[in-house]
Amino acid sequence: MNLFRLLLRTSALLLSLAILAGILSGGCAAGLIALINATLSQNQPSTTTLVSSFVALCLVRLIANFASQVLLIHLSEKAILDLRMLLSRRILASPLRQLEQIGAYRLLAVLTEDIRTISSTVLIIPFFCINIAIVIACLIYLGWLSTTVFVIGVCFLFLGIFSYLLPMMKAMSLLELAREQEDKLFNHFCAITQGTKELKLHHQRRQSFLKEDLCTTALSYRRHNVLGMSVFAAAASWGQILFFIAIGLLLFTLPSLTKIHFTIISAYALTIIYMMSPLEHIMSMLPTVTRALVALKKVESLGLSLPSNSNETYSEKVLSLDPFWQYLELVNVTHTYYQEREETNFILGPINLKFHPGELIFIIGGNGSGKSTLAKLISGLYIPETGEIYLDGKLIDNHNREWYRQQFSVVFSDFYLFERLLGLDNSNLDAQTQNYLVQLQLDHKVKVKDGVLSTTNLSQGQRKRLALLTTYLENRPIYMFDEWASDQDPIFKEIFYTQLLPELKSRGKTVLVITHDEQYFHIADQIVKLEYGKVKYDKSPTLLNI
Fold first, then answer.
1. SS3 397
2. Would the pTM count as exceeding 0.85?
3. Closest C-alpha among 194, 99, 102, 532 to residue 342
4. 3-class SS at 44?
């Protein structure tokens, strides 16, 4: 992906019209230079024709310049909007496991820094294009003045471009290194916001983090940026000197080598001086454009490609499950992921489980036994590496996995709480929500109006109750709770196990609960125990003497 392709993909028509307007603007600029040169070279007062031509060219240049900028501004803003939406869709469409491997900090860096860099660059593209059009029009005018001088000038121009591109390539590699350090910086920023308590409670840890991690990375980021921008500055200074070298050769060297009329030399000098301003603008924009190219490359390097990573199909047809469904079955399901600390692969499975409507299943096991991974497999967030999942005998694959996920209401241990009750089409939503707030003992803390919660700034236990409220409103066939009761006080923990879970079960819901609360095991219909990624047993509590 590059900037031109980004704009072309957004609107080929707008881009074409903007380019045509830019070419017309550049042509008028060259026409004005030619007209000024013709007027200066003649020894008589300007005629009405010259004055009319001058005014007409000024007006056309004004209109064309304005039209080109407005078209490109509209195009640029639309391109940024499309890029933001496309990137957001790609992230949401990519497999969860891939997103976890990429890391939240890298995704955040792309969505903030890279998009902002691309956005600021796309906004200057109109001026970049217009200046290029002016330079091209001036070169055409120079070629029309004298083919011999133009050929010599083009050779000098290519030599200058080559001498400018070499340091530019080095500068771009330095900016790419700086961008890599920026990913690490975002990781450290996440550590600051998420690990504030731990850093405050341990002075040596805090100092080590600041000096060895944050400061080291920030200095490396700064060093690469300074070197890259310094190379750009040196190249820009060299480019500016090249203009005066060209004028010097034109005035002092070229006349001694070949016979050239003075009017041509003066026209060349005047045109080159005029070209200096747009060329300097182009060179000053190159560092920003280079940063944008690095950012675009970073976006692409994430590999978040909808065609390759999201081959799931989605249908707008009814997503609800048959109310009389019979069973959900996992057959020899396995999942493997790499554990960095142990430098080994953790293998969950093969798992063989079967669940029915109206069942209350507890999933138990020690830390690291694979309970949360199993929950993600059952709910369709992880794709089994081997084995199959069946819902009423229907194989779950890429064609119906999106439909399958819509059958679950889940509260994970690392849940996210939205302030708006999104995606819930219910004319009586506020009243229903208020009833649940009373049931969950949150009505004194939270109010709801037009589907918007008054606050989510609550304790972790209260926030989990709000998440539970959302699952109630979703009213899905299968419910799953990952260590939901761990942050609740003893009174509400009792309510959860003895009232809320049986109530869901009585409504025919399948309820899967990941828990360590042994005192409530007896209320479950089935207990599935995991140990080192394997199912140790899947039995009724009565058979376990609970």
1. coil
2. no
3. 532
4. coil
- What is the rounded CA–CA span in Å between residue 338 and residue 343? 7
What does pLDDT average to over the chain? 83
Q: Is 285:126 a contact under the CB 8 Å cutoff? A: no
Question: Are 209 and 156 spatial neighbours (Cβ–Cβ below 8 Å)?
Answer: no
Q: Is 133 exposed, middle or buried (0-12, 13-18, 19+ CB in 10 A)?
A: buried
Provide the residue type at 435 as one letter.
Answer: N
Scanning the structure block, which residue is given the tokens 């399958």? 404
Taking the C-alpha atoms of residue 360 and residue 479, their distance in angstroms, rounded to an integer, is: 10
pLDDT tens for 248-258 read 777 777 777 66
Q: Taking residues 524-542, report their average pLDDT.
A: 89
- Residue 404's pLDDT band, with cuts at 50, 70 and 90, is very high
| Residue type, position 304, single letter | L
d(CA 459, CA 439): 17
* C-alpha distance from residue 107 to each of 40, 52, 100, 182, 225 (Å): 60, 58, 10, 12, 21
How many C-beta atoms lie closer than 10 Å to residue 7's C-beta? Answer: 22
What residues does 389 pair with on adjacent strands? 330
pLDDT tens-digit series, residues 430-468: 898 998 899 888 989 999 998 889 998 898 899 999 999
Alpha-helical segments (H) within 249-309: 254-257, 262-301, 306-309
Whole-angstrom distance, CA of residue 406 vs CA of residue 246: 69
State the Cα–Cα distance between residues 155 and 126, nearest whole angstrom.
28
Rounded Cα–Cα distance for residues 380 and 398 (Å): 10
64 and 4 Cβ atoms separated by less than 8 Å: no
- 168: tokens are 């530019």
Q: How many residues does the chain have?
A: 546
SS3 535: strand
pLDDT of residue 307: 45
> Residue 28: is its pLDDT beyond 50?
yes
Q: For residue 110, give every residue at least 6 positions away whose Cβ sits within 8 Å of its Cβ, in sequence order, or none.
A: 87, 298, 299, 302
